[in-house]
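tool_call: predict_structure(chain=1)
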Amino acid sequence: MDYARGYPGSVHDAAAFEHTAAHQYPTWFFEGEEFAWSDSAYSLTACTIPVHKEPASLQLDNTVFNKAVSHLLVQSEHCM
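tool_result:
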C-alpha cells in the first residue's frame, strides 16, 4: 500500500501520485518488467503505462489496447 496525504479532493489522482513512494522510488514496488496501468492523465514511465489519447487512440491497435485496459479494476481513491 502506498499513499499521499495533505491534498484536497480537487487534486487529480495523477498529481497526488507524483508524491507517493511508488512514483519516487519505483524499485520499492516494481521488479523486473512489472508496471502499473493508468489513465491518460498519468505520464508514461518505466513503471506507469497510460492508455492512449486522441489521435493515437483512434488507431485500431490502440483502441483494442485501451478497451482491454478499461476492463481492469483499479482502486485509486481520495480518502479522509
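agent: The chain has a mean pLDDT of 79. Proceeding to next step.
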